[in-house]
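Tutorial handout. Part one gives the primary structure; part two gives the three-dimensional structure as tokens.
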Amino acid sequence: MVLLSAVKSHRGGRDYCNQRVRSKEMRVAEADILILPGLNDSEPEHWQSRWRQKLSTARKVEHDDWRAPRLSPWRDAVERAIVASDRKIVAVAHSLGALTFLHVAERQSDRIAGAFLVAPPADSAASRLPAVDPAFFPAPRGRLAFPAIVVGSADDPYAPVPFARDLATDLGADYLDAGAAGHINLASGHGPWPEGSMVFARFLASL
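Part two.
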């Protein structure tokens, strides 16, 4: 079982694992939840796909090319989705989707209520991902104007813990440690991810 533990950050290291939460559906209905997958999209059994099915206001941002991503069209697609939303958005981004979101966040901060950023890849990962446009890197590090969580893993092949922690610090986000959870994707056993779902519900309730 993967356990998430809060680590102190500029936002005070909230304890999302033990915080009390009111009705999740009430909070979900107040925001447009944007699901932002990474390279190769999220499979139907991936936790992101499961959350999209369960959360009534969730929708996925689609891209024309999931296998050879280019920053400009990916960034533009995310920005269009944010602008088209009727309510403030909460981003649920994984891997390259998290980097894409960060490239948009400053320009659209007044439309964003919060961000849940899982396993953003380190700058050093660029050399291991030849299909990915190098313009995605380095990760934008400007302080966010809204609450955010960065979730990292002790054995993520694309994001060493020091990178994820430092990124969270620079963003002014809370950092959560998922333990030895790989890249927190289907390959690492994260189809169902109940601990992540619990933390996300409590994050929503805190907004």
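Part three, for discussion. The domain at 5-206 is CATH 3.40.50.1820 (Rossmann fold). Residues 6-12, 21-26 have pLDDT under 50 and may be disordered.
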